[in-house]
Amino acid sequence: MNNNITMTLNADELILQALREDISSEDVSTNAVMPKAQKGEAQLICKQDGVLAGLSVFQRVFELLDETVSVEFHFSDGDKVKKGDLIGTVTGDIRAVLSGERTALNYLQRMSGIATYTSSIADLLKGSKVKLLDTRKTTPNMRIFEKYSVKVGGGYNHRYNLSDGVLLKDNHIGAAGGVKEAVLMAKEYAPFVRKIEIECETVEMVQEAVEAGADIIMLDNMTVEEMEKAIAYVDGRAEIECSGNVTKENIERYISLGVDYISSGALTHSAPIMDISLKNLHAV
Q1: Which of 42, 45, 142, 149 is most deeply packed, by most CB within 10 A?
Q2: Is the pTM of this model over 0.70?
Q3: Are 230 and 144 in the same domain?
């Protein structure tokens, strides 16, 4: 996210859309109390312990409103902060600071919340070979920001979008006419460099997927006993991912099973925001 080219190509238009959502014609409140340009500064203050993510996005919001606005940070993405920490200082035209405050904080709070929640789960997997993956269960138009936050928090990204990889889920299997048919059709259609992953809900489906030559098998919403049987049958012939209602509270029971990956939609769809405020705005 610190790469300026990446930011310009992938994030700027999304940030501009967010700003347009909040300012359809003018910021009436700001224009009422600040009719002329006036330099000022405000403090970015942490109000709870957590892991930061999205500082460059926070800064970019203000830069798109007024390129003269500057932000001095005392921390970096991935840093752990505590309640009361001064994260940084925003300096520039007070009108830009006021107009961009909510959008900038929305990004930073959301992204830091995901990084914080991901970090708390990733910590439970330390010492094991298991990689923690996110999913496509992201907020529309927020995927680039939310998946970045998962990486900052110590997780890994699953496929970014539908063009990024083959993952055959229950409805794909239904459309194809069965597990074997779905895998064989994907192998015929997809480039040979693409791995074929398929979602299985029963041990019987796992057996069929292995015989058809699937590269990765997702064990979806299985009991621990069912997963043990499935993993024993796979016996290293495919990588194994488990998914389905995986949360911070129950993830430990999956670690000893011998899976390669654990995916959790909760990383992005259920992480609470991190409480961060922009305070003490004053003219300088």
Answers
A1: 149
A2: yes
A3: yes
Instruction: At 63, list the tokens.
Output: 């830069």
Q: Which whole-number Å values give the CA distances from 263 to 20, 251, 273, in the listed order?
A: 34, 10, 20
Q: Mean pLDDT, consecutive 10-residue segments, the chain of 284 residues? A: 64 96 96 96 98 97 97 98 98 98 98 97 93 96 96 96 94 97 95 92 97 97 92 96 81 85 94 98 96
- Is residue 47 among the annotated active site residues? no
Residues 138 and 265 placed together within one structural domain of the fold: yes
Residue with tokens 């940084």: 88
- CA separation for the pair 119, 128 (Å, rounded): 15
Burial class (CB in 10 A: 0-12, 13-18, 19+), 185: middle
Pair (90, 111) in one structural domain:
yes
Q: What is residue 100's predicted lDDT score, i.e. its pLDDT?
A: 98
Query: Which of 47, 131, 137, 195 is labelled catalytic?
Result: 137
Which CATH number covers residue 70?
A: 3.90.1170.20
C-alpha closest to that of 113 among 276, 225, 284: 276
Domain total in the chain: 2
Ordered strands of the 39-46 beta sheet: 70-73, 86-93, 39-46, 276-283
Contact between residue 277 and residue 104 where contact means Cβ atoms under 8 Å apart: no
